Amino acid sequence: xxxxxxxxxxxxxxxxxxxxxxxxxxxxxxxxxxxxxxxxxxxxxxxxxxxxxxxxxxxxxxxxxxxxxxxxxxxxxxxxxxxxxxxxxxxxxxxxxxxxxxxxxxxxxxxxxxxxxxxxxxxxxxxxxxxxxxxxxxxxxxxxxxxxxxxxxxxxxxxxxxxxxxxxxxxxxxxxxxxxxxxxxxxxxxxxxxxxxxxxxxxxxxxxxxxxxxxxxxxxxxxxxxxxxxxxxxxxxxxxxxxxxxxxxxxxxxxxxxxxxxxxxxxxxxxxxxxxxxxxxxxxxxxxxxxxxxxxxxxxxxxxxxxxxxxxxxxxxxxxxxxxxxxxxxxxxxxxxxxxxxxxxxxxxxxxxxxxx
Length: 357
Fold this sequence. Notes:
Layout: E1 3-10, E2 23-31, E3 34-41, E4 50-54, H1 61-69, H2 75-78, E5 83-87, H3 107-121, E6 126-131, H4 133-144, E7 149-155, H5 164-176, H6 179-187, H7 190-195, H8 198-208, H9 213-224, E8 243-248, H10 254-263, E9 269-274, H11 281-284, H12 286-299, E10 316-322, E11 332-338, E12 343-346, E13 352-354
Helix pairs in contact: 3-4, 6-8
């Protein structure tokens, strides 16, 4: 694999007191399915995995993850891990438009690009953070390379292939809606789109006027042609690492994430349904997600002495057990948040551990 490009930049962003700008290195490497671009922040830490992110359709790593990784309380995490932000081919800033007839990689092939990234960087293990299509890609990678994935944070994952009814609905929508509008409907809830908040206006403008909109459509088509991940609780096809599933209340993919939770190992899986976060919790509620991510890392044995963020003073992160409605699902762990106290609950009521700093 030959390196095609390496550029060092300094990203402009609000800094915490005493904090210096974080240098980013942009790399591109060739893979069997084309070139892939990724951005590295920080330096590898001994005996610690890299945090590797993968974005959703219509976005790139900046528009998908910047609000989360620039959040003040997230700085304690990113100081302890090197992180790699992968851009799907043709989604990076300044990407040229692919020629007419270009065969865009499938989501499975996009997952097969990740080993080339890790080999180039000489990284042995990662903690993946993916949204939507990116969550699917990281899950596929984890199924194929379980020994290299220590944990996964999967936001808005839909592990299922589209059924005939889904395809019919998709085709009908395509007759009356533009590609940008269909992608916005994938990213955000109908309530959010109807409210037309400043966030919605911002992302509608980003997608509608994207110079690489033709590339985005190719990524969108690959997502809609995804295969079923075939997760099976207690079966051979499952994620072997700790997993945190995240979805916003009333988000477009709420049902799919709930179903995914029912198919994964309940001893390894946490389910976080975030209130008041809409379709993109990493954009709308970076504080809540940072808090949950920190608990997740601590559960994996990292940052054990870390102080909880200020969110813990006014929010509750609780672990509760719930059985499925149909009685066929095993008990699973659910992370839920309220604003009634500052405790972390685990197990039956009354067993609580106060977390403060």
